[in-house]
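Attaching the record inline, Q. Sequence:
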Amino acid sequence: MRNYLIFLVGLCVASALSCNVSATMIKPVANGWYVLDVDELVAEDASLGWIDGQLDDDKGYVGDGSVLSFAFTLTKSSVLTVVDAGIAGDEFGVLVNGVAYVTSAVATYSDEYAGTDFDAALLNFGFSRLSLILDVGSYTVSGFLYQSAIDPDGAALNATIGGLRIVEADESGILILWSIAGGGLLWARRKSVVVNVRERLLWV
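Structure, as predicted:
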């Protein structure tokens, strides 16, 4: 069953890459936050996948609504963190070399707001987050909106912003991980419920 789910996720990703849409690939450096957007009205493929909705020449953002992914090679074990921002209530599906995870469970409706302050969002457990220790190696990370925040009328917003960061897992990195994960408990839900990823991605 698990192999079938992994195959299904891979099929969705392959379908996305085969669509006639452009893509933005970011090669993040350690310690800095990188922005990811979700907006089905802006996305070139009209999906809920991560897109490039920013304009930042220094970091390689084009801001054209193209499919967004991150590619990097680690020479030291590092902590990958993804956190929701903007309005609280969203959860992300995160694909790390094709393996699917989902950020921590949160309520769909909240009056919490963090804008693009990812450090503040990371300290507020009303915002969904995921932290993983990655070994030395090469990685590709992409994602999609797994759960949308809702408005006061109960309608899904289907648009959000989030942050991605990589920190080397040296002594200081481990201290950061402990602080954001509540005493060492990693917010990493590896989900079998990705069986619904087809509908959520709207890629196939």
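The first helix runs from residue 2 to 18. The first strand starts at residue 23 and ends at 26.

More tomorrow.
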